[in-house]
Amino acid sequence: MPNVTLVTGAAGALGSAVVAYLVQQGHKVAAVDLPRASERLGKLQGALALPFDGNDANAWHQNLTRVERELGPVTGAVLVAGGWQGGGPLHTRTSDDIWEIMIGANLASAYRALRALVPGMVERKAGSIVLIGSRAADRPDTSAGAAEYAATKSAAVAMCQTVAAEVLGNGVRVNAVLPSTIDTPANRAGMPKADFSSWVSPSSIASVIGFLLSDASRDVSGAAIPVYGRA
Predict the structure, then answer these.
(1) What's the pTM value of the predicted model, to 2 decimals?
(2) Does domain 4-227 have CATH number 3.60.15.10?
(3) How far apart are CA 149 and CA 102, in angstroms?
């Protein structure tokens, strides 16, 4: 069976690196991101571009049907979709805006993807899913000033580990990677005085993901793997 891997958040810095790595490794890749990212999705070489809202259950059904028709049944998935917002200590917030945004970006997106992808994998008794978590899930103190981000990333990792236990006997594996600061243009622009050399490169994270999707990690499920670099 060919490796058919779906990547959410595929148009971003990390997502596009993951897509490029998987295509190079011979995967058939379905690249998912929001409709506003359609142009960037179209530039991902070797991937089937799927511009849709990952929080839309009906859109998931329609697009998975297309993936199966054009590429084959999904054997793997990388849930990159997410976001970061901070702004200071929680007690200084004057609205719930950041909370609502982080719930949607980090937790609801993972929930919807798992709801859509896991049933087919369980039915086929094969599959591997990798969630992009955050070091904040293991060390929330590193996310001071962004409590909502830490809380939603932690919840997403806990959900994946719970699902991993639920489907372990069905031949499906679910793992998470926990990056520290990722070396992206946006992060460099936002933290110009930081030591970029201590950050984690997207290509490094992509290679860890590739391992978790592969048969070499067939005995690994429910793991939350730190990928911290020197940060």
Answers:
(1) 0.95
(2) no
(3) 6
